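Study both lines:
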Amino acid sequence: MMSEFVKPSKSAVLGAANGVMFMTFFGALWASIGIVGSHQLGAPWPLVLSAIVTIILLSGAISLFVKSRSMNHAVTPKEKEDTKRINRKFGLIFGLEGVAIFLASVICNTLNHFEVFFPVMAMIVGIHFFPLATLFREKFYYGTGIVMCMLGIISLFLPINATFGNVSIIMMSTIIGFGSAVTLWVTGLRIWGTLLKQLKQYE
């Protein structure tokens, strides 16, 4: 992320748009895990709230994409090279995360303990935010990573099932799903809000 004292470049706006899009998409995926695990507890509000937040963040990502297209910023050779370098490193980090999640699913399934897969996945996702914090120079990602890791660890000590009223829910999936969704959505809002604040300083 760019410093608040430097006008964001077109590539920075595009990067922020992609970041918000990622947080929107994966936040919705985690929310779906929570909704399925909750077995319709509180329905339809979890689904409605998830849809509302997803639409808001999606509109934010699209607005940033549109904003980047209207920028007449001439990309310098250095900016092109920096963008390529960042994209390569991001691809590597994202790829390693995918491999780690795949291996975790295989191992959990092989050991007949697939119920711990989601907490382990949350920790993997959390860990991947630490190199991203350095890559994008965004300290907020450290917080995102720590929260995701803590959610994963705490979920391991929760009962698998619990009953609220007459509804039996998958406690572990519900907590890790909704907790991770909120964490990613807040991160997406942070990216969007920070970029808008930077752009507003130069209007």
